[in-house]
């Protein structure tokens, strides 16, 4: 029975991407993803660094669409960090409640704005070292704010989609965001760092899903060492991906 399965299995199922050099494979995958998702953009809507800071804090454990719906109303009332600092925490909680974990997020938003007003004159800082001192802002969020609010690219934003897709593609063997960032920075030229997360996130949302990636529909499956095509392509047969 095993021999029969081996004969009928698609050649793409063996992971032909593993035979190429990692950098060559990575560049080919990126080229395909750029064609599939031709209009890179930030999924969160914002008009200035303050708005991106707040939206980024609210995005934890929440969909981008939900955050955008909440901030569309939120930013009609709050225009700056000073507006947040002067507001009772209960009102902030009520305004952001739909994003979930609103007690913690309200404290983080207000705390970050207080630090910005007290230490940075009300202006969102534009260095990673300063951004990570703000409540609710870790390296991933700091990278996103720097890149999209200040056009400063010093690293790669690593979210759950980037972790999952980059592991499946064989670009890293780590689950640690900082190590994954290092691995991707070594693999890609700096000019690709800003929008690489967009391509991986877009593909992760539409095709390379968790827990059931659509390998049969994936246009990079021939380059992916983890791809399983055909009847065997279910999660039980993807032990490598776990």
TL;DR of this structure?
The chain has 242 residues and is mainly alpha-helical. The protein is built from 12 helices and no strands.
CATH superfamily of the largest domain, called what?
Answer: Helix-hairpin-Helix base-excision DNA repair enzymes (C-terminal)
Number of E-type strands: 0
Q: Return the structural class.
A: mainly alpha
Radius of gyration: 21 Å
Tell me which CATH architecture of the largest domain applies here: Orthogonal Bundle
Q: Helix content range of the residues, please? A: 40-55%
Order of SSEs, N→C?
A: HHHHHHHHHHHH
Distance between the termini: 25 Å
Would you kindly provide a written description of the structure presented here, covering whatever features stand out?
The longest helix is centred in the middle third of the chain and has 19 residues, at 102-120. Residues 1-19 and 232-242 have low confidence and may be disordered. The protein has 242 residues and is mostly helical. The radius of gyration is 21 Å and the shape is elongated. The chain is built from 12 helices and no strands. The protein has 2 domains: 2-40 and 157-241, Helix-hairpin-Helix base-excision DNA repair enzymes (C-terminal) (Endonuclease Iii, domain 2); 49-150, Orthogonal Bundle (Endonuclease III, domain 1).
């Amino acid at each position: 029975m095993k021999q029969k399965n081996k004969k009928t299995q698609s050649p793409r199922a063996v992971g032909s991407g593993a035979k190429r050099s990692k950098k060559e494979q990575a560049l080919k995958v990126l080229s395909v993803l750029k064609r599939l998702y031709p209009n890179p953009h930030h999924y969160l809507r914002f008009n200035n660094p303050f708005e991106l800071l707040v939206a980024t804090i609210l995005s934890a454990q929440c969909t981008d669409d939900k955050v955008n719906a909440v901030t569309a109303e939120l930013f009609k009332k709050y225009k700056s960090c000073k507006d947040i600092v002067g507001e009772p925490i209960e009102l902030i909680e009520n305004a952001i409640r739909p994003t979930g974990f609103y007690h913690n997020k309200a404290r983080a938003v207000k705390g970050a704005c207080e630090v910005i007003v007290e230490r940075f004159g009300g202006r969102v800082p534009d260095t990673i070292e300063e951004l990570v001192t703000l409540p609710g802002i870790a390296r991933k969020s700091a990278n996103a704010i720097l890149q999209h609010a200040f056009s400063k690219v010093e690293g790669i934003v690593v979210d759950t989609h980037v972790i999952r897709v980059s592991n499946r593609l064989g670009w890293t063997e780590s689950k640690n965001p900082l190590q994954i960032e290092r691995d991707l920075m070594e693999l890609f030229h700096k000019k690709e760092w800003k929008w690489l997360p967009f391509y991986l996130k877009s593909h992760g949302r539409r095709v390379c899903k968790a827990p059931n990636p659509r390998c049969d529909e994936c246009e990079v499956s021939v380059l992916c060492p983890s791809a399983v095509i055909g009847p065997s392509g279910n999660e039980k047969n993807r032990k490598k991906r776990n």
